[in-house]
Amino acid sequence: MIKENHNYSFLKILQFLSLDIVMASLAVAYMASRILNIIPNTEWWFILPMVVWVVYSLDHIIDSTKRKERAIIERHRFHYINSKPIIIAVVIIGVVAIWLSFTYLDYLIIRYGIILSFIIGVYFSILVFLKDRKLAILQKELFIAIVYTSGLFMAPLVWYGSLPSFSVIIIIFCICTLAWAEGIMISYFDFENDIKDGHSSLSIILGKKITRRFILVLHIAIEALLVIVLLLIEQSDVIVMAMAILIVMNLILGLIILFPYSTLSNRYHRVIGESVFFLPALIVLA
Hints:
With 286 residues, the chain is mainly α. 76% of the residues lie in helices and 0% in strands. Helix 3 runs antiparallel to helix 5 and helix 8 (166-189) crosses helix 13 (263-275). The longest helix is centred in the C-terminal third of the chain and has 25 residues, at 208-232. The chain is globular.
């Protein structure tokens, strides 16, 4: 049973449990299926959110052990206080996801999934072993972005069966980069709290000023890349729609970090940043 010692709202608990990220992952996965023109099997739509939730929950559980119930960041404190029911849920959902995967997914997807799971396991093990020691090469926001994108596109690419077009590769790259930029943006706003809780984000490694410049350059590069590809290469309606959605997503995230001191950015950066990944569902209009 989840303890609600701090009178958190229902919406807040959903965010703490990363359920908004899980739902957004389905939107991105739907875009993946549309741009690759494949029809995933029904079970994959259940397996995918389960795996996404397990990975994000494990990450939060590990982070919550830094300062335990004294954590400044509410999400981490919530996970520490409710660690027992969350860990039980992680184990049960993880086992169910594994069973469904071996029962319904192709052998190649399972093999790649095992490799990705091994990489994630090694990474988390290293984080636990290092504890308070910082290692720039283990940049968490980038790792999570790569794992997130790999997990969402792995099965669709296997079902597609060949190397996708250049435009699709650009879309995959931009989704990964946007996920990375959003993660860095969150760490930028959590800078002081991360220092107090002993976390090592890119913002802490580079410093707040350089981090903001880096994110802005990242957003400018993404916007330029998408616009250039749209103008120079003839695209199908679905690809044009996908790129237009990514341009809007990039613009929204870029405006948050461009005006970090505005009330909207300062108070709602996490909600807006995570909600942006619901926009790929708009590809249903294409």
